[in-house]
What we know:
This protein is α+β, with helices and mostly antiparallel strands. The chain folds into 2 domains: 5-195, BirA Bifunctional Protein, domain 2 (2-Layer Sandwich); 202-244, SH3 type barrels, CATH 2.30.30.100. The chain is 27% helix and 33% strand. It is built from 5 helices and 12 strands. The strands form 2 sheets. A 7-stranded mixed β-sheet has the order 1-2-3-7-6-5-4, sandwiched between helices. A 5-stranded antiparallel β-sheet has the order 11-10-9-8-12, with no helix packed on it. Helix 2 packs across helix 4 and helix 2 (71-90) packs across helix 5. The longest helix has 22 residues, at 162-183. It is globular and about 55 Å long. The mean pLDDT is 95. Bound molecules: biotin (BTN). Biotin (BTN) is lined by residues 13-15, 37, 40-43, 46, 48, 50, 57-59, 101, 111-113, 129-131. Biotin (BTN) binds next to helix 1, strand 3, strand 6 and strand 7. One of its GO terms (biological process) is regulation of DNA-templated transcription. It is an enzyme of class 6 (ligase). Keywords: ATP-binding, Biotin, DNA-binding, Ligase, Nucleotide-binding, Repressor, Transcription, Transcription regulation. This is Bifunctional ligase/repressor BirA. Belongs to the biotin--protein ligase family.
Amino acid sequence: FGQEIRYFESCDSTQFIAHELAQEGAQDGTVVVAEEQLTGKGRMARPWDSKAYKGIWMSVITRPHLTPQQAPQMTLVAAVAITRAIEEVTGLTPQIKWPNDLLINEKKVTGILTELQADPDLIKSIILGIGINVNQSIDEFPEELMSIATSLKIELGKTINRAELIATTLKYLEEYTKLYEAHGFSPIKLLWESYSNTIGRRIRATMVNQTVEGLAIGITEEGMLELKQDDGTIFGVYSGDIEFRK
Ligand code: BTN
């Protein structure tokens, strides 16, 4: 990954640019990276705060041989890869909150936005949008994020080299995508579960049209989160937001 890198001082969203490049036929592993995003976007149409020079704001175009139903697995591949990269560069080990938030001390340090270009039965490309809070100090977050977000610098107490972290992230993204393509989801699932803070906890999952509560008991071969409800039935959460319950 990263043979082809498009670098921007400032842009609306690396995700928009990556979509255009993917449509024009960009190769597997093409990277779009920006110092600043003016309209960075998160999951569920939320804004993503993307201050200049403070974080890693990048989108990676991948072309895995998967069906659209398997797409959630790529999100989990990315979550594991970025966790490993942060661990290698900083010595800090983030925890993964399903499906793809990386937390340190229960605060969000990284978000991943997975978007598809696909026909009904064939994925053309998966755009992995990766936002890593690297060198913000606490007062550089908008007020509403101060209690829920953190950066690697805040947690480590020193500035981190973003270029090194980008290179290491791309290395692990490529390595784990290959592992996944060669050996299926099982090895990724094991890694994901070992970094997860979600399994074994009581969860409320909010989906588009329903809310379900239960004990998180694992993830399925498709990458869905399995909840055991109080009446014993198992519910698979395909996508949505979760919160921890007492
Ligand atoms: C989330 O947790 O809601 C996902 C956040 C994803 C943010 C990244 S930053 C690079 C890429 N471009 C965007 O506009 N969003 C993603």
